[in-house]
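Dear colleagues,

As part of the handover before I leave the project, I'm documenting each prediction I ran so the next person doesn't have to rerun anything. This entry is a single chain, and its sequence is reproduced below.
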Amino acid sequence: PLMGSAQGLPEVLKEVLKPGFTPSDDPADYPLLPQRKFQVELSEPLWIVPSKNLPATLALNKSNNNVAITIRNGTIFMAFRNSKTHFASKKSKMVVISSRDGEKWEVEAEISLKKDCREPQFIDAGINLHLTFFSAGTSPFKFEPGDVVRYTRTSRHTWEGPHQFLQKGEVMWDIKKRFGEWYMTSYSGSHYNIFGPSKVDLHFKKSLDGLNYTPVEGRAAVYQGGVSETAFEFDHLGNLWGVTRNEDGDQSGFGHQVIFAEKAGLSSWQFPQKSSPEIFMSPKMFRHQSELFLIGRRQLGKHPFDRTPERWGMPIRRLANWLGYSFTPKATTLYQIDQITKEVHPIIDLPSAGDTAFPSIIRLDAHRFLVANYTSRPDRRKISWIRGQLGQTYLYLILINFRPQS
């Protein structure tokens, strides 16, 4: 795709933030134009945190990350984690803000569980808007997922909860409503263990109401190994595609896997024998026309994520890969997935550097997608991920437009 400059984001927000406007995220709701070609355009970023348009009463620490957005009835909602650093802390809180015009923002809620909180997701279930995120521990050196909790917006600035959403220790990653049903990827198990085999279970579930989930086709786990965060999307024929984050490593190696499942057997995921050595952390997928795209964190170092030979053994490989990744710079990147070769190709970087990439994507119409993301100062492209995790991070909105060519 060619690059261009998209329409200004403030004007787009005024256009879409009208009473009664709730965009459809399902690509099946938009017609296919198989003979058309499209140019990919990015708007300038609209910086939300920090911003003079936030209430003066909102006191924020320097770390702002893990962001989610949704639009409901002419209001845009944003939830994000606020803390001292990227690492777990009992001082972390989940902040929810909203805007009716894309300029002035109001505080909806500041939720503190006296322990870490991460990975917000909105679920617009029709009658109510729900916010989910998982509670974690207080140690910056441990991964301690607790309950995934749910809060429900019952009136303006009122969110009731917490209510338990998933089983303790299960972490939700990607969630979408497709074909009238909700689908979700999640994972559970021994994430970030240095020794022993990787025993992270990857789950694929569905729901009719967006709140109560059961395994697709009754299969409790679609994979066990080193895979955690997994993005997914359906192609225009109803087949399933996904991109995994294989950070813990297993018999396939480290990195990522592009998976495929036929429409008739959505729980029968087809995995490659070997993981590709590049990794896309915080991956999220979407479809435009018949093409599949991914937004995730890109490694800018000289080596891919998996830089180790098999003879080193799994504990040493894990440590070498994790440390090597932490001390190299990063970017948030838009990728396209080749459905023939099952390869992932970078297209363009979003504003990003250091600690970055937790994309939240809203489809506005047939060709426009609103993305929220976080980053260290984007002009400091050479700082490492670990340095960014200890410093200031910012939140912004940006528009991706696929402009039809004549």
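The radius of gyration is 20 Å. The first strand starts at residue 3 and ends at 5.

All the best with the project,
I.
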